[in-house]
Amino acid sequence: MEEYLSILKKSNLFSGVQPEEISAMLNCLSARIRHFKKEEFIIRSGDYIRSVGMLLSGSALIIQEDFWGKRTIISDVMPGTIFAETYACIPSIPIEMSVISDSECDVLFMDFNKILHVCTSACTFHTRLLQNFLSSIARRNLTLTKKMQHMSKKTIREKLLSYLSAESLKNNSSTFDIPFNRQQLADYLSIDRSALSNEMSKLQDEGILTYKKNRFTLKEDFHEG
Amino acid sequence: MEEYLSILKKSNLFSGVQPEEISAMLNCLSARIRHFKKEEFIIRSGDYIRSVGMLLSGSALIIQEDFWGKRTIISDVMPGTIFAETYACIPSIPIEMSVISDSECDVLFMDFNKILHVCTSACTFHTRLLQNFLSSIARRNLTLTKKMQHMSKKTIREKLLSYLSAESLKNNSSTFDIPFNRQQLADYLSIDRSALSNEMSKLQDEGILTYKKNRFTLKEDFHEG
DNA sequence: ACATTTCTGTTGTAATTACAACATTATGAA
DNA sequence: TTCATAATGTTGTAATTACAACAGAAATGT
């Protein structure tokens, strides 16, 4: 547990909680760590959620598969981020998405009820925890809305540039890495992979964009383009 | 205030709170009611949010306008539903959407900080209020995800049928009213209005769908189509 | 009832996309 | 290294869409 303290300290959920208090709180939350290999289900669609997950290492994807097995990527999951929190708040509804490891990773699970109901010991920080949890759910909301912003654009070019300029802004740099390969990016934006590749080539030819693998550089001022 | 008690009782936020306690709580929450005419801003993009809104009567829309004034509808707002709750949880970030009345309506505003911080009086129900607030944010999350599900479909026909079958399911009936006119539905699904009308006509010709104004009937078993 | 405005449906065309099929380039294992 | 496999890029075509322009219907105000 100690090895992940630096991640926990930086996480939104434990923001403002003294490091020495965190491990005490983890006890209260019945926290346990599980390891996953690449491409494993961390959470499976249909599960009833009672624990909130937090990625400690590696990377994961939140995905949704429709009736015919067509896969959509809802979001990437980075270390320090919680997931399944929405469904933990509505325990009567089974989760309608899956969380899958995109590399080897470690995941912390915490009992939702113990986040919600004040415990006897670390109560000073419990209020803070609850506030942080609220703001984490709210942030999830923002990322969903942001994704919708990209998807609502009409052309592949607009969708891609909307996504990339948002990533650029997030990273405070015109050069940045994205957490997706080509197929994943296509599944995230709900477009065809080959059409995406094609459009990327054009943008590169036009000098708007440079890329190599997952590293992109946006030229000039293409914000909200 | 009394005239809206039936709405408040049925709302998610006050679910499980005794009716006689509700008005006491409204005091604690510094609740006040404002009236809006049709097409007025209830909340304006760029505002800093400290109050949570709840629609008491009429209908409203949560919209987003991009750089070039292109309007997207994020969600409709029905009586009893709260809004702006996401940004109330992250008060440092200005809201990036607007809420506009779609008819005359009354709106209840409640101080977010007083929802979060337990007050001295009605404390028994305050825990319940907090839980309900959490579940309301979570439900917002579900509606956003559901909208993304529709938008992620590749053709107008699929998007429309995905939306309509979800509405049918929500209403537990193959005949149901939707809260949008044609232009609004197009803005909600991010498609062209005339192309939407065109596709609707085809679906009607094919006997898959019947509609008149905002009332739709889905024939046979078109679920997740 | 009338005029005006808004909403909805229709059609044609140019632009865009999905899809398939294949070429090229990485990646990883033996 | 060599082979096999996965990831990415390229191209052509059929399908779909956006957009504009317009017609008819419905709603609204006077």
Write the topology of this structure:
The structure is a homodimer of 225-residue chains.
Chain A: H1 5-10, H2 19-28, E1 32-36, E2 41-43, E3 51-57, E4 60-65, E5 71-77, E6 82-83, H3 85-89, E7 98-101, E8 105-111, H4 112-116, H5 123-151, H6 156-171, E9 175-177, H7 182-189, H8 193-205, E10 209-212, E11 215-218
Antiparallel strand pairs in A: 1-8, 2-7, 3-6, 3-8, 4-5, 4-7, 9-11, 10-11
The first copy, chain A, binds a DNA duplex (30 and 30 nucleotides) through residues 154-157, 181-183, 191-195, 197-198, 200-201, 213.
Descriptive overview:
Two copies of one chain form a homodimer. Chain A is built from eight helices and eleven strands. The first copy, chain A, has 225 residues and is of the alpha+beta class. In chain A, 36% of the residues are buried. The interface between A and B is medium-sized, with 35 and 35 residues. The structure holds a DNA duplex (30 and 30 nucleotides).
